Amino acid sequence: MFDGKHTRRGLLKGLAAVGVGALAAQMLAACGSSAPAAPAAPTAGGAASTGSKPAATAAPASTGPIRVVVSGYGFMLKDVNMALFATKYNSTQDRVIIQPELTPSGPWYQKLAAEVNSNQVTYNAILYANSYSNTPQFAGMGILQPIEDLLRSSSIKDADKRFDLMFAPARTNASYKGVLYGYPLGIQYTSNTIRKDYAQNAGYTGDISKSYDELTKAALLIRQKYKDKNVIGMSLEEESGNGTISYMFWSMTQQPFIKKQIKGQEISFLDFKGKDFIRTLQRIKDWVDQDLTVSKTQAFDIDFKAWQGGVAGINMQESSLGYVTGVPLFGKDNVAPSVPLPIDGGNGGCLTYFVNTLIPAKAPHPQEALDWLLWCNDPANTDFMNNILTYHWYPVFKSVVGDIMEKSDDYKWMAVWGPQIDKSIPYPNDNPYYNLNTDLINKHANKFWSGDYKTAEECAAGLDQDVTDSTTRQMA
User: Fold this and answer.
1) Any residues with CB less than 8 A from the CB of 474 and at least 6 apart, and which?
2) Which of 198, 223, 300, 440 has the highest count of CB atoms within 10 angstroms of its CB?
3) What is the pLDDT of residues 118-146, one digit of tens each?
């Protein structure tokens, strides 16, 4: 189960790996599976591997199975169970051995870039890359290969039609400048979670997903009831690629991005000076001024200390992590299942990002690696679909909502996000600079909460200029 420790927050800054040391490829014994059959005849390499040197650990095809090394953070191998599904896959056929290895600590992508340049690539797949930052960044570095041809040449049936089965934003979230690089495993969405016991004792019986006014009403009642116990109304997430400001902005706007000309290139920027971003900032500042957040000068509940410490009434967070982390701490009877954010002028979709897997440029066995990923993340592979749900990601296939979620008491409450995910406006894939927004949004927003900026418009203008200047410097 997702324990709340492994989010993109810890991966964004420096792309630091989780854990140290090696993980055995066969770490878990294979068990019975409802998965589809393995591909009939994987090729020994694939067109994109021409000119590359095979990994040192790869055995020649003539002497036994092809050994396909894939790289994953510790949580991907253990908690998302990619090592287990490698073992399962290996047990279904004798031509390929998928060998998971722990992503090394530090800037591993720089090492990969050097390996690409010297034709000495070892890894055949990267098992985690978020869609808003990692995927465009790595594609922009030239260390990935497109997968469209690999989908067409795959021996997995109808692999080239797989994206047609996914939620609408999947292809865009897996692309960079119109070229498909990623094969997604799951989706992170946005949610609010309320302490049911606090709400009931405070006399609140409404629906916090109805409107932001309703959400505010619930937070005020909880704050008034428990102020002497230092319980705050709202636990809000700081920006770390996305966060409360982004979540709410997507719910308030029909179009979060505008185009700007920078050094002769037209690239996408968040519409910081638009009325909807300004509305977003003002709504949060109102909560700060109403004494609903962690202090009168700070909106964000850093590391969710108030929520997890039991002194917050409502939590806004990615996926359903407020609920997932709250139940073990406070009991299932005291935490209501998460609900979507209100739609307040938006297109009816919520902010999402997709978790992609990627194939390195000049990988020795790209086809075999992608075939394994296709075998794992197949809507017919109910073991893997349930695995993704257990980890509290949203499956990428629309059919899973009706086939599994709506039929399960454990997951039926998650089904409500399906239509919102399908309408979600994707992050732009025309530049690799989106991660520059993160610290700058926090920097300027915190100045607004504390009163250094007198108006939301002033804050937005300062933020817009700072992001534009930072992007221009990066492009120099």
Assistant:
1) 433, 436
2) 198
3) 999 999 999 999 999 999 999 999 999 99
